[in-house]
Amino acid sequence: MDFHHHNSSPSSSNSSSTATVTTTQNPPSDDPMHSWWESVSKARSRIHALAAILPSSSAEPLSALADSDRPALSLLSSPAAYSALSSSLQGSASDPLCHWLYDTFLSSDPHLRLLVLSFLPLLSALYLSRIHHHFDPSSLAGFEAVLLAIYAAETKSRAGKPLLVTIPDLSQPSIYHAPLRKPSAAVDKPSSVGVLSPPLEPHVSMKSTKRATIVGTALHCYYAQISQMPSWSKLEFCRFAAGWAGQDCPCRSELDRRDATPVANGHGANGSCEIEIEEVAEEMGNLNLQIQKSEFDLDSNRENGEGSQKGDRIPLPWEILQPVLRILGHCLLGPLNPQEVKDAASFAVRSLYARASHDLVPQAILATRSLIQLDNRTREAAKAAAAVAAAAANAATTATVNSSSNSNTPTKAKKPEILLASK
């Protein structure tokens, strides 16, 4: 594919040479006003370039966004711009929108890079859906170039080092529950370290054996900036993730039913474990029929021509599923997320739990079960807090009404008391 051989860039060599000359002629300045104006100029030029690509009906709102003080952030928070771009995105090597996304991500402005990452749910969903439903790989070269650009930037930033996570040691005292002074006889144990992501190797083409790693790394970059992503981008990702799971069977809500069912045999935790084991045995007995049904539904969707639609069922290796679950965890439990995003993430997590239960993926089952339980507890706490607030409001309203009614009720004048004195 010629799309990747020219330094993996869909743009011409003239543009790269021009960028080099511009950088040489305009040395960096320490003036913050100069840096701000340079960032605004870059963002406006990219927005005007995007407006020239899109249809005329969508170009006028984009031109208005370019006149704002922060054009990149204005475009980032515009659902209209997302709708216009998503309806015109094709993914081929000659797709001008893929060229625009690629060149915009290569800029040094962090807001412009953030703008490209906000379109990653749409781009990765379209690419994964089409590549797994027998589309011509050459027609997806534009998607692959953008994903490879994001992967190359992350590979360079990691500098050959893995992503590590420190696992807490429960045998050690917590700093929140124990004094900082430790006994002299105590010996510190080495902390357990888990590998979240191994070192990345550079890739200049999208190989089938490395596709999951490249897409998963791009999703990790999206997660790293998740707090700055607009709500519409998070909402789209949750909907795509639910479609990727492709499981809408009754077991999707089995944890909700299990949490709502009290233990009635009076044996406490042991009785709960026995009930859970019986339920798992019953589910394993019906597992074969459920898998056959899901495969039949998938085949019927392919025959009906639904393979290119948004939210198709796709293979979910751990390289992709891990960042997907981390993103859904933020969308589900983030305190600043709107309720619409939380509800979409809740539905997606339950769909992935059903998919993991059918595919028998232990780490995915544990992760999705934990998210579902956290979601249930959070919603129960929110309902309890709302009930307490409503009761307090009703009590305050009742007290106000009673006090006002007592003050407005007319009272009869008391008759003067007559005291009879004995003679």
UniProtKB/TrEMBL annotation:
Region (Disordered): 1-35, 397-423
Pfam families (alphabetical): Hyccin
Organism of derivation: Stylosanthes scabra
Biased composition (Low complexity): 8-28, 397-411
Protein family (similarity comment): Belongs to the Hyccin family.
Name listed for the protein in its UniProt record: Hyccin
Main location per the UniProt record: membrane
Keywords, sorted A to Z: Cell membrane, Cytoplasm, Membrane
Subcellular compartments: Cell membrane; Cytoplasm, Cytosol
